[in-house]
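Narrative of activities, Objective 1.

The group set out to show that a structural description can be obtained from nothing but a protein's sequence at a throughput compatible with the screening campaign. Below is one input-output pair from the validation batch, recorded exactly as produced.
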Amino acid sequence: MEKKERIFLTQIISLVILVVLILVILSTPSLFEFTWNEMLRDLIPGAEYFFRIVTELGGTYVYFAIFFIVFWGINKNGAKSLFIIYISSNFVNWYAKSIIANERPPQSEWILIGASHLSTPSGHAMSSSVFWGFSAMQIKKWLMWIISVIIIILVGLSRIYLGVHWLGDILTGWLFGTIILILIWIFDEPLRSRLTRYKPFIIYLGMAIFGFIVMILTEIFFSQTSNFGTPGGQMIGLGIGLALENKYVDFKTNHESGEKWRVALRVLIGLIIILIIFLGLDAIIPSEIFWLVAIEYIVLFIVGIFLWPLIFKKIGL
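Output recorded for this entry:
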């Protein structure tokens, strides 16, 4: 058996094992009891503020900040890949939660935090596995792998400690995330090779159209306790933003003058702009109206990916 065939067989066997493990966890009621949460709290008393900070390493604000820092000033293509995969994992998480339909622990047990939608698999555990795992796959340094694994474990533990997830939610979230990483490992090169036949503008526009169609169909036929505005709007906004940037801006992460302070300034000002927009729209947009939630993310991505690069390129940052 050739090396490629052995690797592929290993990948397939790994996927089967992971799926079986998910089914085993879902069939084990004891993993969805609050006893595990209480045990962790007893083991590490008084750590609620520590875990409240840690949980943000698996949250939207941190992911968006990292994405825009990398996109504007370090590696534009790497940032694109990272966020396409992150948002795709949000699609999978939403559908998995809706199909499994498992409720969260009692709200009376939550500490310092709120939560929405259903419980299994944990969105934080799954997205942190995908986001940090894919980052480690791209950087290909042992130190990055160590940092990523530590963050993934701590984020998962934080959701248990803060009381918004069962142990079974975290385990299934990690397993779903690992499945996505293996699928990336399998299909990354063939998919990239196939997509080189098309212009980037067409690919990005296709992403936006796909996000719109899936969002509308989901809201019509599949919407349950939470709307699809967040992942749908993220995919639409990312696609539109990338299409417009590709066609009308096409900036370089390294400034042509070689002056790094200009890149640092573009990143700093951009983050302030994104934070203001994010907090402002969050404050006025009701989370239960899917199309308004979608518009929030569409606006955010168009500003961050297209309008701000258009401006900083014009003014020489």
